[in-house]
Amino acid sequence: MYLLLDNSNEEEILFVLSVNNKSVQYQFPFEHQSLPELLSECLKKAKLKMSDIAGLAVVIGKGRFTATRLAVTFANTLAYALSIPVVASDPDENWPAKISAQPVGIYVSAKYSGEAHISGKQIPQE
């Protein structure tokens, strides 16, 4: 089973499970729950276990700065702990194919949708 984590929407957090080429979405309102708690709830609803995850995709380049950083950190940590591949992807891409082509041990970096605004100053991205 492959998992896509999309934390880019300000209203909800989306988990998409791909099992045997069939996708199932689980949406959770964006509240103060942690990503591990939400993943646990998602897997429980799907009657799956953490060890069933064979690879991860995480959406980067969209959404809030902190949400992107949290999603990438969570995905990389989970990939490391489970020794599974992780890729950066867009929900519209064929992310299961990207995961299956990715070797274990290569991790993703956050990409942001705009320039950082710290203390009212714009800091250009390189």
Question: Which structural traits does this protein have?
Answer:
five-stranded mixed sheet, 7 strands, Nucleotidyltransferase, domain 5, alpha/beta, 3 helices, Gcp-like domain-containing protein, 126 residues, Gcp-like_dom, globular, ATPase_NBD, single chain, two-stranded antiparallel ribbon
Structure description:
This protein has 126 residues and is an alpha/beta fold. It has one domain (2-123): ATPase, nucleotide binding domain (Nucleotidyltransferase, domain 5), CATH 3.30.420. The chain has three helices and seven strands. The strands form two sheets. It has a five-stranded mixed beta sheet, sandwiched between helices. A hairpin with a 2-residue loop joins β2 (12-19) and β3. The radius of gyration is 15 Å and the shape is globular. The model has no long low-confidence stretch (mean pLDDT 85).
What's a quick, concise take on this entry?
This protein has a single domain (2-123), classed as ATPase, nucleotide binding domain (Nucleotidyltransferase, domain 5, 2-Layer Sandwich), CATH 3.30.420. It is 29% helix and 29% strand. It contains three helices and seven strands.
Largest sheet: 5 strands, mixed
- The total count of strands amounts to 7
Spatial ordering of strands, largest sheet: 3-2-1-4-5
Fourth CATH level, the homologous superfamily: ATPase, nucleotide binding domain
* CATH architecture type: 2-Layer Sandwich
CATH class bucket: Alpha Beta
Gross morphology is globular
Order of helices and strands: EEEHEHEHEE
How many H/I helical runs? 3
List strands and helices in order, with pairings.
Layout: E1 2-6, E2 12-19, E3 22-29, H1 35-46, E4 55-59, H2 65-82, E5 86-89, H3 95-101, E6 116-118, E7 121-123
Parallel strand pairs: 1-4, 4-5
Antiparallel strand pairs: 1-2, 2-3, 6-7
